[in-house]
Amino acid sequence: MADRLRIGMIGCGEIAVQTAKGIAASTLGQHVMVMDTDARVAGDLGVTYGVPHTTKVEELLANPQVDAVYIAVPHYLHAPLAIQAAQAGKHVLVEKPIATSLAEADDMIAAARDAHVTLSVAYLAQVDPVAQTMHRLVAAGAIGNVVGTRIVYRGDKPESYWHGGYSGRIQTDWRTSKAKSGGGVLIMNTIHDLNTLRFITGLEVVRVSAEYETFTTPVEVEDYVAATYRYDNGAIGTLEAGSAIRGRDPLREVNRIYGDAGQILFSNPARIFVTQAVEGLQAGQWQDLPAPTGSHGGDRAAMIDGFAGAVLNGRPPVVQAEDGRAALQIALAAYQAGQEHRTITLGPVAKAAV
Questions:
Q1: pLDDT digits (tens, 9 = 90+) for 261-293
Q2: Residues 228 and 208 reside in one and the same domain
Q3: 353 is a domain residue
Q4: Is 270 domain-assigned?
Q5: What is the pLDDT of residue 280?
Q6: What pLDDT score was predicted for residue 75?
C-alpha cells in the first residue's frame, strides 16, 4: 500500500485554495499536479506547491503520477469532469453539490462503479469530531427521539460575490445562472447543513414543502428560501436561508436538533441539554458538548485524509457519493416544491454498495 494518495486538482479558484492547503497539511494526501483553464490561477497554485500546472484537463488525466483528482469547478461541470476522470481510472473527490441534477449524480455514480474507482463529495461533517460526537449521542438516545431540526443561514453577499466569489480570484458569471449553478443560497450554502443533519440524525427526508424568491439580487437564482420537511421517523425539519439579509444575524442564531428528551445547539462550542443523565452529561442543564480532539478537526486536511485513507485501504469513503446525492435530492425537491406550489414526495434514497 502506498503511503500517500497522489492528487491532481481540477479547478484552482476560490475554494480550491483552501483545499490545496488541506492537501498540503494532510498526512495521506500529496500534491502532484494542478489544472485550470485560467493559466494565471493554475500557475499560482502550481508554483505555490511546486508541482506542474496545465490548462488542459486531458493532460492532467493522462499523467500516470495522478492517482486521484479533486474537482472544484462551476457546478454544471461537476458531472462531465467526474465521469471523464473516472473513465481515465482516477479516483474522484468532487466539491458540493455533487451535481445539478439527480440524473447527473446517477451517471457519476455509475461511471465510478464501472471504472472501479472511488467517488466522494467534499463535505466536512463526517470528519468533524464534534459532529461525530453528536451522531453518536443521537444514536444512543441521549436526546430521546428526534422530533425536529432547524437550519438557519443569514448572509449578505456583496454584489462582487456573484462574479468573483468572496476572493475575486476568478471573474466568472456562473453563480448568477440557474442552469450553471443549479440554484442560489440553498444549493450553494445550506446543502452543507442538509448533509450534516442527515449524518448526525441518521434520518431521511421523505417529503418537502418550500417557497423561494429572488428579491433584491440581480441574478437568476434565489436569495431567500424557506422550507419544511418531514423525516422518515415523523420528525419535522425547517430551513430558512437568505443571501441578502441586511445586517446579517446579530443574534447569531444556530442550527438545532430537537429531541423529546433533550436538544443540541450548533453553537461554538456546541451545547446540549438532556432530561436524563447519560454518558457523563448532567440532566436538566445546558452544558458544552464533550468531543474528542482530532488531529485536524473538521477541516479540509481531515477531509483529504478521510478520502485518501479510504482509497489507500480499499474501503468506502467517509462521505460516499450516495450521501452527496441524498443531500442534492432534498435541495432539488425544495426547488420543485417552490416552483410548483405543492409538497414533493421524495423517491427512495440510493444506498451505496459496501
A1: 999 999 999 999 999 999 889 999 999 997 665
A2: yes
A3: no
A4: yes
A5: 87
A6: 98
Measured CA to CA, the distance from residue 334 to residue 321 in angstroms comes to: 20
Find out whether the peptide bond into 97 is cis, omega within 30 degrees of 0: yes
Q: How far apart are CA 245 and CA 31, in angstroms?
A: 39
| Cβ pair 241, 186 in contact under 8 A | yes
Q: Give the count of alpha carbons within 13 A of 142, CB side only.
A: 27
Residue at 138 is within a domain: yes
On whether both 203 and 65 belong to a single domain, the answer is no
Q: Is residue 354 part of a domain?
A: no
> How far, in Å, CA of 119 to CA of 102, rounded?
15
Range of the domain at 44: 5-124+300-319
At residue 112, does pLDDT exceed 90?
yes
pLDDT in tens, 142-168: 999 999 999 999 999 999 999 999 999
Provide the domain count of the chain: 2
Residue 336 to residue 342: CA distance in whole angstroms: 8
Secondary structure of residue 263 in the 3-state scheme = strand
Tell whether 279 and 304 lie within a shared domain.
Answer: no
Cell numbers 431521511 correspond to 204
Helix axes of 39-49 and 14-25: crossing angle, nearest 10 degrees = 20
pLDDT number for residue 296: 46
Q: First CA to last CA across the chain, in angstroms? A: 21
Q: Which three cell numbers stand for residue 313?
A: 485501504
Residues contacting 274, CB < 8 A, separation 6+: 142, 143, 261, 262, 281, 282, 283
Task: Over range 311-331, report the average pLDDT.
Answer: 97
How far apart CA 172 and CA 160 sit, in angstroms, is: 11
Maximum C-alpha span of the chain: 60
> Do residues 98 and 228 both lie within one domain?
no
Q: Residue 295 pLDDT > 50, yes or no?
A: no
> Do residues 311 and 277 both lie within one domain?
no
Do 161 and 55 belong together in one domain? no
CB-CB contact of 304 with 23 (8 Å): yes
Q: 199 and 341: one domain?
A: yes
What integer is the mean pLDDT of 224-235?
98
